[in-house]
Amino acid sequence: MNTHRWMSTQFFSFFLTWGIFLPYWTGWLVYSKELSVTDASFIMSMGLVARGLSTLFAFPYLSGKFSNKIILRGAGIGTLIAVLCYIPAQSFSLLLLVTIFFHFFYPPLMPILDTAASRLVQHKQLEHYGKSRQWGSIGFVLVGIVLSLFIALYGEDVIYYALLLGVVSLVYLAFRPAPAVLSQKPTETPIATGGLLKMFHMKHFWLVLLIVILLQAAHASYYNYGYLYLQEIQAPDYLIGLIINIAVLAEILFFTTADRKFKRFSIGSLLAIAAFGSTLRWILVFAFPSVIVFSIAQVLHACSFAMAHYAFMKYLIQNIPPAQIPKVQGLYSALALSWSTAVFTLFGGYLYDIKPGYAFLGMIVCTVPALVLAMRYRRVEKLC
Fold first, then answer.
1. What are 102-120's pLDDT values in tens digits?
2. What are the distances in angstroms from CA 260 to CA 2, 129, 255?
3. Fewer C-beta within 10 Å: the chain N or C terminus?
4. Per-residue burial over 121-158, b = 16 or more CB atoms within 10 Å of its CB, e = otherwise
5. What's the burial of 311, exposed, middle or buried (CB within 10 Å: 0-12/13-18/19+)?
């Protein structure tokens, strides 16, 4: 089996759906389900809380009991059931419950796939993580461009049906043959059964984790209010998908070249560049509320997200034993991609109600401390 093709296909199919969910779902709740921005923000925040619980506890536990292939299938089926439950849900309470159920299964697919990629790299069956991960970014871009055209023609209801179709494809691919190493049932070892707190004794783990938590949390306003903000600054409907996907095009370019051009960069240097780029990005969006500047600032997604994620994956591959990877991925997803984002989604929603641009400027309360910590870690690396 061509493991690069298998991993690339899995990333492509997942991020095809992620490109529907991440930029548009809050907008779908507001326009199709007729929720206020505040109510939609609260629902999405509670979903992120559920996502954190799932990735921190359920995913690592199940990874110790079942193969990666089985977990991938189970998460896919649970996601499909949750998406179907959105059809009858109309009230705030039902939408909240369905969203919590949905987040328990769907977002954990990301650490599941990253864990699979990490294992394949460590087993010498996948040469480069970046080259496979770039296909996820390509899927994200393609669906965003196409979906924006359909939204302009048919309205926000098309967002739901696009996600449903994408999830059906995910489930189908989960039942296709997978690399043999991902079908192996894990064996319990002392390091695999150790508590979460033991991971903080690993070399500089807490510092690297804190930096990526801050950097990923800083995307909360962009993920939840970027679509609404582009409408606020009067971006043409048919261009919104393209503008959103400038960020992912930059991400693709980064992942395509990362293994070659950034191979010699230290993890601390990568994190420092990511923090500086993220700070500049949100200041630009706030200071110049125009479609042109927003579009230019999107290029900095290559720093704010892609480089930060790549740096953490590089740290993980170099320092974390294979048996610990699911726990580390779960911790990263829970703290960096879920709970911190949930807190700053509420914070950003509060600021958005005051003035939309404030929601983006407010994110520098994450990026500036991340820059200071990254520079400190960079100095520590040089001493080691």
1. 999 998 898 889 888 888 8
2. 22, 11, 10
3. C
4. bbeebbebbbbbbbbbbbbbbbbbbebbeebeeeebeb
5. buried
What does the alpha-carbon distance between residue 252 and residue 258 come to, in Å, rounded to a whole number? 10
What does the pLDDT look like over 364-379, one tens digit per residue? 999 999 999 999 998 8
Q: Residue 33: what residue type?
A: K
Percentage of the residues of the chain whose pLDDT score is greater than 90: 44
* Alpha-carbon gap, residue 28 to 33, rounded angstroms: 7
Please tell me what DSSP assigns to residue 263: T
Dihedral angle sign, alpha carbons of residues 58, 63, 65, 71:
positive
CATH for the stretch 3-174+199-383: 1.20.1250.20
Most confident by average pLDDT, 66-70, 90-94, 321-325: 90-94
């992942």: which residue's tokens? Answer: 255
